[in-house]
Amino acid sequence: MVDVTSEEREAIQNLLKPYGQELIFRAKLFVSTGENKKKQTELRVVALGSHRLYVLKPAPKCSLVQDAHILDITEVSSPSSTEITIKFKSGSLSIENAPESTVTEIGQKIYNLHLSNFPGIGEADLPKFNISGGRLDRDPDLDEIEACGGFVGAYRCVCDFLGTPVLRDVCWHVETLFTFNDVRTFNLGEIDLRKEKMSPMDAKALLMALNFNQYFTTLEVSHTKLSSEVSTALTGLLQANNTLETLNLARLGNLKDSIAQISTALFANKELNLTRIDLSDCRIEDKGMTALASSLGSFFRGIVSLNVSQNCGKQGMVALAKALESNQTITDTLEELDISGNKLDAEAAKAWSGVLSKCWNLQKLDVSAVFGDGRPCYGQLQPTRASKTLKVLKLADNKIVTKDSLHLELLQFFRMFPSVQELDLSNTGFPAEQSIINNFFDGSALPHLRTLDVSDNDLGDAGLVAFASAFMAFKRLEVFRFQRNFVRRTKARATAMTILSKWVNADNSSLRELHLAGSPKSALKQDLPPFVFQLMVNKTLTLLDVSGHSAGDSLGLAVGKLLQN
Questions:
Q1: Beta carbons within 10 angstroms of residue 460's beta carbon
Q2: pLDDT surpasses 60 at 37
Q3: pTM (global) more than 0.85
Q4: What single string gives the DSSP state of each residue in 291-329?
Q5: Which of 75, 113, 251, 442 has the highest local Cβ count within 10 Å?
Q6: How far is CA 433 from CA 23, 88, 347, 463, in A?
Q7: Could you give the CA distance from residue 318 to residue 66 in angstroms, rounded to a whole number?
Q8: Is the CB of residue 412 less than 8 Å from the CB of residue 379?
Q9: What is the pLDDT of residue 464?
Q10: How far apart are CA 30 and CA 103, in angstroms?
């Protein structure tokens, strides 16, 4: 083998500089190009950097003849002990009449370059290797993986492959903040500290660097617009990664155009450990939800949390419900379900009743804003058996209808979830009638209730009297949210504030948080300071929200005295 000259070494170093590559191998070898009769063999300088293979003309020209990134390599084989062929996605390179040790060394170097740049890569994702003289060995030095699963090294390698600049702020972010704080969440929207907006190619490089990463367990690609480059990279990531447990694509614009490909990749990867999926507010519509449902129906792994809120109409909801009900693996493991903001009619509600009847471990259910302004279908949504595991139930923005005693369907719905501890009934038009409030909150339907939100219902003074009276008897409530409910002042205001004070300050009260926030159209004004003064004898409250009531300096004085006390 002919020695490499100083001039040739300098030319190689200049090629390695742009992405900070290290020199891995260099030699003068006989390289053949072309095929059959057109095949030519010439002496060339062959060099391997951290990311690329280079072929140069010998000195004095030292011009670049060919270069290829390691991600372009598809196969490395040696037909004989003195020959090695490297195939790329486009084209190939053959080295002939080389020492046997050199053939083995080149194959070994290329093999370990893939492992060093992508520490988590599996054998199935490597190029095909068939090297004469035996198997390839992993370099022992590779056992010590760099910070965050070698992410920065993988990212630099991918940037070189795509021809996009390395974002140095991102590298610093990962190597310092992530490493020392053991951050396992990769948030694409927060990883770049620059003021300017991240380009689609920057995002693509970051996602591709995660393909084989075994450090990060959560990926957030939310609150952004999904370009074709990012969509392709995201699909590839989900096909290759086997470590992610949580995927958050919330508010990802244009997802409806690529949800079919993403969901196919999501559920085709048998090694993926994904158990938490957030596709909220992606507007994938009925067609997209049906595509997602098709993949979920055959998903082989249990899902703990699924959020598909604000996405589609009743057709998509029916498709998703049927898919989940048919997949026992999911219904057995599902703990959190959010379908809020989608549309349910009687048919769709009945389909979801089947799902709720089979979710043995469901702990959190959000069906807010699913009935619109029409008749709520709690009777159809009601599961066929009671759930003893559900702790959080959100029904906000579903109007309660008292005509023809339809509200009793909701009461019966409550009785199917006797273990509920947190209930959200905000903006439901909940009636301020004492008899209805007593019926709902006497402890028989929801004996373990600890947190209640009835904000934005225009309950007024009468409603406050009714709720305070009811909870003086039901002494277990710990958090009460009664915000923006005072649209008008009535003669019952003084009574309402007196009863509220009596309940909150009672010796047997369990109340820890009281949320009474107002607004310009819902303000207690000067009725509030006296109540705050009365809290000086309170022994249980740890949080009080009385913002937005336009009560002026007198409220500030009252709060100051309360804090001093």
A1: 19
A2: no
A3: yes
A4: HHHHHHHT--S--SEEE--S---HHHHHHHHHHHHH-HH
A5: 113
A6: 80, 76, 31, 7
A7: 56
A8: yes
A9: 97
A10: 12
Whole-number Å distance between alpha carbons of 56 and 313 = 61
Q: In angstroms, how far is the first alpha carbon of the chain from the final one?
A: 89
At 172, list the tokens.
């610093």
Query: What is the C-alpha separation between 246 and 227, in angstroms, rounded?
Result: 22
C-beta of residue 549 within 8 angstroms of C-beta of residue 493: no
Q: Which two tokens stand for residue 85?
A: 């062929």
101 phi and psi, to 5 degrees? -65, -35
- The answer, yes or no, to whether the previous bond of 18 is cis (omega within 30 of 0) is no
| b/e code 117-133 from CB counts within 10 Å (16+ = b) | bbbbbeeeebbebebbe
- Which residue reads 């369907």 in tokens? 409
State the pLDDT confidence band at 193, using cuts at 50, 70 and 90. low
Per-residue burial over 424-457, b if 16 or more Cβ lie within 10 Å, else e, is bbbbbebbbeeebbeebbeeebbeebbbbbbbbb
User: What amino acid occupies position 449?
Assistant: L
> For 72-164, where are the E strands, in sequence order?
73-80, 83-88, 92-96, 128-130
d(CA 527, CA 489): 10
Residue 10 to residues 18, 25, 28, Cα–Cα distance (Å)? 14, 14, 14
Residues whose CB is less than 8 angstroms from the CB of residue 54 and which lie 6 or more positions away in sequence, other chains included: 12, 15, 45, 46, 47, 48, 64, 66, 67
Q: Is 387 left (phi over 0), alpha (psi -120 to 50) or beta?
A: beta
Residues forming beta bridges with residue 32, ordered by sequence position: 41, 94
| Cα gap 273→455, rounded to integer Å | 39
Rounded Cα gap, residues 250 and 237, in angstroms:
17
What is the sign, positive or negative, of the torsion defined by CA atoms of 212, 215, 218, 219? negative
Amino acid found at 82: T
541 closest CA partner among 511, 515, 563, 565: 511
Q: Tally the C-alpha atoms within 13 A of residue 29's C-alpha that lie toward its C-beta.
A: 27
Structural tokens at position 418: 């006797």
429: left (phi over 0), alpha (psi -120 to 50) or beta: left
At 248, list the tokens: 């958050």
Residues 6+ apart with CB under 8 A from 515: 455, 479, 480, 481, 482, 483, 543, 545
pLDDT, tens only, 195-226: 677 888 999 999 999 999 999 999 999 877 78
Q: Please give the Cα distance from 417 to 115 (Å, whole number).
A: 52
Distances (CA, A) of 500 to 45, 475, 514: 87, 13, 10
Helical H segments across 359-481, by residue range: 378-381, 407-415, 434-440, 460-473
Assess contact for 146 and 118: CB atoms under 8 A.
Answer: no
Q: What is the DSSP letter of 535?
A: G
What pLDDT score was predicted for residue 38? 63
